From TrEMBL:
Subcellular location: Cell envelope
Any one GO CC term of the record: outer membrane-bounded periplasmic space
Pfam families membership: Peripla_BP_4
Domain Periplasmic binding protein: from-to ranges: 40-299
UniProt source species: Streptomyces sp. R41
UniProt-listed SUPFAM superfamilies: Periplasmic binding protein-like I
UniProt keyword Signal present: yes
Keyword Signal assigned: yes
GO MF term set: carbohydrate binding
Protein name per Swiss-Prot or TrEMBL: Substrate-binding domain-containing protein
InterPro entries the record matches: Bact_Solute-Bind_Prot2, Peripla_BP_I, SBP_2_dom
Amino acid sequence: MKAFIRDTALTLTAVSTAVALAACGSGAENDPDGENTPTIGLLLPDATTARWETQDRPLLEKKIKELCDDCTVEHANAKGDVATQQEQMDSMITKGVDALVLVPVDARSLGPTVRKAHEADIPVIAYDRLAEGPISGYVSFDGEEVGRLQGRALLTAMGNKVPDAQIVMMNGDLSDPNAVAFKKGALSVLKGRVKIGKAYDTLDWRAETAHMNMSGAISALGVANIDGVYAANDGLAAGSISALKANKVNPLPPVTGQDAELGAVRRIVGGDQYMTVYKPFGPEASAGGAMAVAAARGENLDRIATGTVRTPGAEAVPAVMLTPLSVTVANIEDTLVKDGVYTIQQICTPRLGAACDKAGLT
């Protein structure tokens, strides 16, 4: 664990240094006319996953303003609709924004629009999800490692039931390249170690779809025959847990998650969810904001990047890849609370008083 934290710290230090470099030379002095006022478009995919509007958007906007106080940020949320996001992106291209930060609803479908931006000399920074087409930079976390963390945690939670354990896999929407990576990483750990009784790929990452699918899995497998649930994110975990409770499953099997949503953290403290994957939003937004500002100014992104990544078109682009962290009840205070994501007061509602005391969250 100490080695893991050390590696994470080194990565974050590299990103912090790169962000500081991006701030150097910023401002109107770079424009001989003193009119360097870039516009950056921020295109988010949905309002279903809480992190986009509550964490990523404000952090990105804050970092962009820190690095470029006269930059304008234009924000749009596609609310899970590909056609809407294409229209939003087309609108920003028409307006002539200086750079785009894109979290694609569907990477493949957005590929032609990314190419249109490229042809209009508008650099596209793919944020959190790798986009298809000629992007200029990429900021995210190691998606396969996310899946591996979830798979390992699930095996640990099921303990001596392995290798006879049977699980349900509640994967994300496979039009999202991250969902593909999560699933691949999880299967690399779980395949051959447990029986996968049912597996679902969840369109639009909808919790209500996860609820419906979990109800179907319970009917098919039997209440007593589900030893664990691989849920790719916290929304799918919530839907799965609600279905398990509705079907009187007691005790609940261990359920994984991702995104460290407040509701999920409370479920972990209360014993309904076993773990979540924490992807520190601050460093990701810092790197994304630094890349967006540099791209808008026509600067080289290599000085911000910590490496490169291959796009679906096999082109190597500058990238910042960060390390995710597994969170269980045992390390909430040392991760989420320590990083200022949530306070103990936010996590520990009156209903969770006894559970918080037991977990040492006081």
